Amino acid sequence: MQKGMFVAKYVAKLVLPILLGLVLLVSVVAIPVVAIVGTIYNSPFAIFLPSLEDGDTVTTVASVYVADFNLEVNELKSNHTRYDDGKIVYVGYEGEGHPGSQIVRAYHQKWWYAFL
Which superkingdom (predicted)? Predict the structure, then answer.
């Protein structure tokens, strides 16, 4: 029995520092990697990454907002009375190219706060 305890203590003295070193190495490497990936997935850069689940991705949700925004704008532009033509003018937009994403972002904020 004494010999078995002596062997167990000897093995513990050899194995525990190795296991502790391995755990520290894995935690030093894994924790920053997990933190960086988590930060990127919770940032606007997530649009470039694959989805983590089978549900909606950032791209599909954003495209729904843009489509809804364009539908509402075209509806406002075409449904008017007593006038021949309708025109949408964005504040701060000079008419060159496509309106910036800030317009869609403002629409999203309006839509989001309507449900709160």
Answer: Bacteria
